[in-house]
C-alpha cells in the first residue's frame, strides 16, 4: 500500500521479499503461462502459411487449386480464445482470423494465383506482427502467478481511461491486499507461500468476466480492472470474490487447509482525474479497510 508509482520492477523488501518465487515455482508458472498464451500457435500458423505460399507459387492456381491448410485459421481461433481476457491483441487476432477464413475460401476456388499470393503475403506479415506483439506481452507476465504485471496494468488503465473520455463507459479498479499472508510464509515456508499466491491469482482470474482483468502489483497485492462496472457493481464483484474464497481452501499444507482473506479498496476511473489520483483513492480505501482490522471486502473513504 502507500503511494502508487508505476515503476518497472516488483517490490524487493518487506512482505514483497517474502513472496520471492523459487526456481521450481517460477518454472511451473512460466510453463502454465505458455499454455495460456500459446505463442507457438501463431508461429506454427505462420510456417504453415509460408509453406502454402510456396505451393501456390509452384502450381497453376486456376488448374490445380492449393487449399490453405485449416490449421492456420484454427490456430488463430485458439490464440483468440486464449487472449480473450482483456488482451490488447484481440482486435488484431480477430481481423487476422477473418482474413485467414476468407483466404481459405478463396484458395478452394478459381482465384488467380497473383491474388492468392498477394493476400497470403498480407496475412503472413500480419501473423509475424502478432507473434512479435504476443511475445512482448508475455514478457510482461509476472513469473510466479502468470498474471500481467505493472506495465501491463498501466497500459490497460490508460486504454480504459481513453475509452471513458470518448464514450463515457464506466470502469473501476479494485486494489486487493491479502490478510494474514505473512504467517503463511513464516509457518509453512516460502514455497507454500508461492503456491498460495499462485492459487490466489488463479482464483481471481477464474472468477472474473471475460473482459475484466487481474494484475499482480507485487508481493501480496493485486489489482482488478473492471470495465463497464460502477463503484457499486465493482464492490459486488469484490464481495463475491471474498465469499467464494471463504467457501473453500486455497491450498493444503502439512495436512492443513489454508483459506484466503483480503481487504480491498475500490475507485472509479474519472475523466477529470489522473490514473495516479484514482489509484490513490483506491489505496486510501484499502488502507482504511486494513486499519479497521482486515477481512474487509471494501474500504470506504
**Helix/strand/pairing class, anyone?**
alpha+beta
Over all CA atoms, what is the radius of gyration? 23 Å
Report helical residue fraction.
55-70%
Q: Count structural domains.
A: 2
Q: Order of strands side by side in the largest beta sheet?
A: 2-3-1-6
The ordered H/E elements are HHHHHHHEHHEEHEEEH
- Which parts are unreliable, with pLDDT below 50 for 5 consecutive residues or more? 2-37, 295-301
**Please, what is the oligomeric state?**
single chain
Named CATH architecture of the largest domain: 2-Layer Sandwich
How many helices? The count is: 11
**Name of the CATH homologous superfamily of the largest domain:** Reverse transcriptase/Diguanylate cyclase domain
- Kindly identify the CATH topology of the largest domain: Alpha-Beta Plaits
Tell me the total number of β-strands.
6
- What is the name of the CATH class of the largest domain? Alpha Beta
Please, could you describe this protein's structure?
- The protein is of the alpha+beta class and 301 residues long.
- The protein folds into two domains: 39-138; 142-291, Reverse transcriptase/Diguanylate cyclase domain (Alpha-Beta Plaits), CATH 3.30.70.270.
- The chain contains eleven helices and six strands.
- It has helices at 14-17, 23-36, 39-58, 70-82, 90-107, 113-138, 150-167, 182-188, 190-207, 231-247, 275-291, and strands spanning 171-178, 213-218, 221-227, 251-253, 256-258, 262-268.
- The longest helix is centred in the middle third of the chain and has 26 residues, at 113-138.
